[in-house]
Design a protein that fits this description.
8 helices, alpha/beta, Rossmann fold
């Protein structure tokens, strides 16, 4: 694996805020954003993003989470799966198996940038399926942000949201009596052919966690049922948990309840006792 430096953000207090680079094989470049820990580093975290429209909706949220953790001595690496975001590849190249392989590359890149630091992995929404596999393989502590227990349930929600959007006169002001026609290859404008839908429907987070040996820390909607395998569970108010329920971008900021969840995760990270 090789990394190609891209750019470094302006420094504040003598420290770079974050560093952009492409990592991975020449034919499969992944966009990564490394956020160094401020002060004495004590741990490192890999953030696995959600899929499809939730990926770009989560971008600012995960950036703010990484910033808060950096202030508490936790370095982090965010990345885009191949075929999504700023990574190389056509959107048709995205697969679950490919996303797991991309997370392996990103984890190696994090270890290169933050050597000797104990690592954890965080998965947001569908990214939890990727993070759970990585945590199980490498025996890493797992953090889950609004995880999706059943793939079929999430897929049904996406299909229903897609149907509502195609019938929206706000989205299509000159829509006739019939909704905008569906596309079997797409959901909410994201490329999602039948084969990928079948993969999504088969995902079962509880089954993935059955063999987990490290702690599983969960941040979730206060209305959600806690995962049976969760070591700790931290509630988000419904208003703070609703960012994924629309496809339009909205302002994202860290409210006190969200900050409390981030602070709780920081205390649970390796090395907290020495901080």
């Amino acid at each position: 694996m090789t990394a190609v430096p891209a750019s470094t953000s302006p420094a504040r207090g003598g420290e770079a805020l974050h560093e952009f680079a492409f990592a991975g094989a020449p034919q499969r470049r992944l966009s990564t954003v490394f956020r160094p820990a401020q002060g004495v580093p004590r741990a490192a975290l890999l953030l696995c993003p959600p899929f499809f429209h939730e990926h770009f909706l989560s971008y600012r949220l995960l950036s703010l989470v990484a910033a808060r953790l950096a202030e508490r001595g936790i370095a982090s690496l965010r990345f885009d799966y191949f075929g999504s975001g700023d990574s190389w590849g056509e959107e048709s190249a995205f697969t679950l198996a490919g996303a797991v392989a991309d997370a392996e590359v990103a984890l190696a890149e994090l270890a290169r940038r933050a050597p000797a630091l104990p690592c954890s992995v965080l998965g947001a929404r569908a990214g939890g399926w990727i993070a759970a596999r990585l945590a199980r393989c490498h025996r890493l502590p797992l953090w889950l942000w609004q995880p999706l227990p059943r793939g079929q349930v999430w897929l049904d929600e996406l299909i229903a949201m897609d149907r509502r959007e195609r019938a929206s006169r706000q989205r299509y002001p000159f829509l006739g009596a019939q909704p905008w026609p569906s596309d079997p290859e797409r959901l909410l404008a994201a490329y999602c052919p039948p084969a990928l839908r079948a993969e999504l429907a088969a995902q079962d987070l509880e089954a993935l966690l059955e063999s987990a040996v490290e702690p599983v820390h969960v941040v979730d909607d206060e209305r959600a049922a806690p995962l049976a395998r969760a070591t700790t569970w931290h509630a988000l108010p419904a208003a703070a948990a609703a960012w994924h329920e629309r496809i339009d971008l909205r302002a994202t900021f860290i409210t006190p309840p969200v900050a409390a969840c981030i602070e709780a995760l920081a205390r649970l990270a390796p090395g907290a006792e020495a901080a």
